[in-house]
Known about the structure:
Elements: H1 2-11, H2 34-49, H3 56-74, H4 77-93, H5 100-121, H6 124-141, H7 145-160, H8 168-176, H9 179-189, H10 193-217, H11 220-235, H12 243-263, H13 267-282, H14 290-311, H15 314-331, H16 338-358, H17 361-377, H18 384-405, H19 411-428, H20 432-446, H21 449-452, H22 455-459
Helix pairs in contact: 2-3, 3-4, 3-5, 4-5, 5-6, 5-7, 6-7, 7-9, 7-10, 8-10, 9-10, 10-11, 10-12, 11-12, 12-13, 12-14, 13-14, 14-15, 15-16, 16-17, 16-18, 17-18, 18-19, 18-20, 19-20
Amino acid sequence: MFEFGREFRRLFKPENFKDGLTGGDASLLELLDLDLLRVEGRAADVAAGRISAKDRPQRYLEAARVWREIARRTGDVVCLRKAASAAEQAAAGFDKERRTAAWAAARCEQGGIGLLGADLVGDEGLNAAAAVALEQAQNSAGHSVTTALAATGRAAIEARALRGIGNLKQALAAAARFDTPIQELEAHGRRRAVGRLLAAQARVDRAEFLAGCGTRLREPMLLRMAIDGAKAAAAKLDPAYEPLSWARAETVRWASEASLAALDIDIAAIAKAVNGLVAALETLDRDQSPMDWAGIQAALGGALQMLGEATDSDGAFGQAAGAYTRVLIVLDRLPNLPARAEVVYQRALCMARRAELAADLKGLRKAENELRAELAAGKPNQDPVGWAVRQLSLASLHEARATISGRDRGDRQRAALGLALALDVFKEHGLRSLATETGRALERAKQPWPAQASSAGRGGRS
């Protein structure tokens, strides 16, 4: 795959293509590394702004697609704003009555940008704006790729609303909303490569939603559906031509395999999932797509954490903490990213479990001192989620120390106030999984230590 990419860059030197390398074909964007993709974005801007430009709105739409892909790979909100501006100019330039399909495509792109923005900054208002744009696109386009793509976007919004709260019946209903538009995209994919790629990406979105619900609900059926969906998506992708989408499909598949194996405490199957994630990681370079690379690292950290819980392995927890640390190399540039808070907490949890297994009070004390220093230096008004995560992490370390030493110095109860405030922060920012963990930690912190020292108390945190 990497050899193909190098050959592509050698043959298509950016200086020889003033209007870009892909000719506006979004299905070719995954072949470009970040440097070439930025060149493509600038070339698209130049093509749209040229006085002699033909079909200027179409050029703006092509530019929006490129800048959105850059923002997706890097998390750069500046690039996302460029994408939003270009898509807005495209929608304004198309005549809704005479060029309905083109206008719908621009509105659909605006919807996709809104969905990505909601992921990057955690603003539910962007989901609402995206829903409006996608509904207009779906209602205006007629029977086309745009109609099906808009339908998958609306299905994704409905699925997001169920994250952290939906039951099995609701999860199955939300997943079913993806089915018809995926089939329509696959039908278009028999004629155009972009339809096949969009269908595979929609399958991955569906599988990712099912995996999240299956893990939260501890429901094997949902996890098996996620595995089957991710396998079906990967089978329709060529890792040489669609390396990022293929790696994402493999990540969802093996992360789901790990969660399913963890339900049965199947150590061999968890280890196999870890190897699958490592193999997917080896196909992707961090500079090619930092966010995709970080996503695989996070999944690897989760699988290693499950392996540590199943085997009480200090080494597995250490490797999991290392994977989460590598994720933060990318996410520390994005302090407002909701996923970053979860990664920070899971890393602290791995550190606490390592200390428990090794009965390392000195290591715990060092970790506590570092967290206290971060709390003292932090600015809760500017980064409330970061402050709340540190409170939750500190409470986990206090609990670990009490477990190791067999006595509680009152730190847990003193941490209860911070946990109560952290719970409010997580609820306000829609971080449901962290809010759940904080609620459990708060209940444990309020209990007298002898009651907390039971194995049942420990199981509530895992």
